[in-house]
Amino acid sequence: MASGTTGRDDAAPARTGRRESPEERADRRWVDLLQEVRVAQTGSQILFGFLLSVVFMPRFTELGDFDRGLFVVTVVLGALATGALTAPVSYHRLFAGRRRKPQLVDAAARLVAIGLVLLALTVGAALLLLLRVATGSAAAAWIAGAVMAWFAACWLLLPVLQLRRHNGPAHRPPAG
């Protein structure tokens, strides 16, 4: 065997730790992704629906310019999050029957990641607005910032630390 070779046929698909074909792997990843989306999608839709109703509340007219602007930003973020988190349904309809499931899963996963960021921003902005209206305190921004830091820790930092702890920093899962 020549130096630098792995001893396996370079044309063979990389092993993923399971004995599954690329199609089976794409099917499994799609089902996993759908389960993840169901949680985030429901939360984003409930929050967005609530935000849509706020403008019709009597107290809304008492909001100052900053809080009205913050409300608009929050609603737009909620709409964007809902759009990104429901996009896999549209992708699936357009990709169905075209034998492109791996591409479907990759594109949908990117949209879900974007949707989660938008959802976190929506929650942060909604919390800031709520705390400003409820307390009128400058501490509202600090509390909302602390909650956003918590989201970043739970959704990003802790999973990355867990991966590094169990796999080492140099380990990467197989591409695709």
TrEMBL record:
Residues 7-23 have a biased composition (Basic and acidic residues). Keywords: Membrane, Transmembrane, Transmembrane helix. Residues 1-23 are annotated as: Disordered. InterPro entries: DUF6328. The chain crosses the membrane at residues 37-57, 69-91, 111-133, 139-158. This is DUF6328 family protein. It comes from Kitasatospora misakiensis. The lineage of its organism: Bacteria, Bacillati, Actinomycetota, Actinomycetes, Kitasatosporales.
